[in-house]
Fold:
Amino acid sequence: MEVKDITNRDVDFAKWYTDVCKKADLVDYSSVKGSMIIRPLGYAIWEEIQKVLDRMFKETGHENVQMPMFIPESLLNIEKEHVEGFAPEVAWVTYGGKEKLEERMCVRPTSEVLFCDHYKKIINTYRDLPILYNQWCTIVRWEKTTRPFLRSREILWQEGHTMHATAEEAREETLRMFNVYKTFQEDYLALPVITGKKTEKEKFAGAEETYTLEAMMYNGYALQNGTSHYFGNHFAKAFGIKFTDKDNTQKTPYQTSWGVSTRMIGAIIMTHGDDHGLVLPPKIAPFKTIIIPIGDVSEKLEELKSSLKNNNITFKVDERDKTPGFKFAEAEVKGYPVRIELGKRDLENNLVTLVRRDTLEKIQVTFEDVVPKLNELLDIIQKDMFERAKTRRNSMIYDAKTYEELKTLATTKDGGFIKINWCGNVECENKIKDDFGIKSRCLIEDEAVTGACTVCGKEAKTRLYIGRQY
Amino acid sequence: MEVKDITNRDVDFAKWYTDVCKKADLVDYSSVKGSMIIRPLGYAIWEEIQKVLDRMFKETGHENVQMPMFIPESLLNIEKEHVEGFAPEVAWVTYGGKEKLEERMCVRPTSEVLFCDHYKKIINTYRDLPILYNQWCTIVRWEKTTRPFLRSREILWQEGHTMHATAEEAREETLRMFNVYKTFQEDYLALPVITGKKTEKEKFAGAEETYTLEAMMYNGYALQNGTSHYFGNHFAKAFGIKFTDKDNTQKTPYQTSWGVSTRMIGAIIMTHGDDHGLVLPPKIAPFKTIIIPIGDVSEKLEELKSSLKNNNITFKVDERDKTPGFKFAEAEVKGYPVRIELGKRDLENNLVTLVRRDTLEKIQVTFEDVVPKLNELLDIIQKDMFERAKTRRNSMIYDAKTYEELKTLATTKDGGFIKINWCGNVECENKIKDDFGIKSRCLIEDEAVTGACTVCGKEAKTRLYIGRQY
Structure:
């Protein structure tokens, strides 16, 4: 493992990304076109993500279930907008063994229709509501071009699906889970996300409102990193889901769904990574530290290992027959938040060297101080990573008052988010896409609108983030 | 929920089983033929199973990964015995969106070939071995007739896949994980499993040896509840996997795989359940107890809840507007190991009633004694459930020295395991199947062989369990 194996991220960011994915042993390509193999470190990060999110979902009253993986074509066809959005990108199963199926089935691209089909059976009265379900599973979308974690034919994700007696409750749920995602991504993944409502054009197929979390990658490109949808009762009506309310009348319930995926691992890599490889936020790192023994230090190593265990700090030890330099580089590639260099000579003076992965700063402490200092460092690194990402992101948010300004920004800056005034008309949105290949990210809800639409010059109704995307 | 909704298990065991699955809200049927919906209680049991097993896998050095869900036909075809075993029962994807695929792909029925395809790339020298991987995922087998948890087109399971430098190490691993399963099923699921090697005829397609765990259900039928396979290097050779050993020569590594699935939930139901519904072993019950308040006991209820929380005892509270009788019955159907009746009148005398689910025995204790008594009961119930199942199982193990004896047993007993002497010849195995519809379960390794083969009368080489199966 040599640092020179990783492309410089300022020279070729796309190549840098795939280099890091491969060299950090996060993924491997497979003989199955469009599908990736998630290797132990990549999967361990996903397990950490699952552990925290699953706890947050359960704390907000959700239960896990498991729906079928297949959707018969007739079931997918029930909600019109939804099928139009997904039918072009599903995988169709047409044979079971040697027999041709009477009705073909797709592998779920998302499970709204499966949940609705179940809800129809289990919702009878207001007492059955709300229903707060979540599912951890794999979905399939038949993408033409794929990229590890970002765009893959198979996606590991969770999808929450809930049903409520009133529109108000469903809207609250949509925002509650949206905020759970925001808290999680900021506090655990150290990702400063831009959050807001999607435009009509960009919302989820079949949804009334879609809220999105938009993370900005190192190159200034946006990564849509999670969405929460309010469906109103479109699906419920299409599926004939009804309940008897307290007033003894039949009503149609209101619905939400919300999901995040292994794409978040891509966001971690492209937000925090550097030319040495992956940099993992301590709170989500499967192993908080790696010990690299130098020379015969077995006694102190055992002592340190028990001390870390007793303090519930997860760690790895690299005792392979390789040079320390090789091991340092590999520890950097794999993103351990702190590396502990346990050297024979240092130990003669009772010293140990800790190295921060985010800054590569070296800190010498006495052997007894390793654990307290490590705990302190892990906290600091987590905070610093978030602040650093936020500062960088803010430096790449621009403002365009006129179409000329927009044109200059769009043609001189490859990445970054641009704030514009918008009249709310889809033609203006389409024009930006046609002229510059830039799409809407989300509405800006906390800025007052003054002046004209940046595109057409008519009265602006809202502020809007636009930006290039993955 | 009325107990009378559940069929008597001695009258119609199959109907009793589906009644319990449905009434305990473990599963629901879906519009997707052959696939089931796993409802919150069913999935929570699976999560408990995953939590314990995953810890056991990690403690034995295994790492989790995620392979693709699809297998291109040419990849499935590489190992001959394997493809013959699985091709008749796979689901084929032939279209991606509107385009016909150049090569069709099946949804994985198991992932040996996918792991081998990956191993070929990542195994180079002896330093890369052993590779100890596990995967939690869903597999698909196109079954004609399905039954919740027992036989389904979609199966949630884990599959361990490991590679070793020597046959000896691979054999050790096969048995190590076999023993992990045995410990788990006995200690956590309270299932007294019969364990041993499968006959040549019954082993896994492509394996050299298959070890099986055979649980006996209430009706005496066997449920194959997990298997561990030693592959030798068949697959490795077929895939051209090689490593440079310490002596600098090229060698082919040795392989294992092992898996258990949601089928274990079926085994729990059919081993421990009764005419009142599900009975969950305390160690795997997602909620150890349910509190049923009777009258206004809100103060004591809050006290009890914090006390349970502080003692890490998971619980539910049933505060719905229903009669205590209704709630008792539902708590029984859903199998909570202990129900706590928190009644206003009892509390006036500082008393609380605990009810064991396994025996329905009522125990009155003082309010202060609830938690210690509950902890004691949970331990006792776990042990008693295992012992009760073992006693029952042992009472249904028969011995047939002659074909006449075998015939009498096979025709008078619908269930149960029969021990026979066996010459090792597949014709004798086939004859038993043809005459009585009974298959081999596994070899009996701890019994000395004396006398003639129960079927053909030639010299017996081994003792064998046979029995009807799910």
Q: What stands out?
A: Chain A touches chain B through 55 residues (CB under 8 Å). Chain A has a mean pLDDT of 96. The CA atoms of residues 105 and 424 of chain A lie 38 Å apart. The domain at 282-392 of chain A is CATH 3.40.50.800 (Rossmann fold).
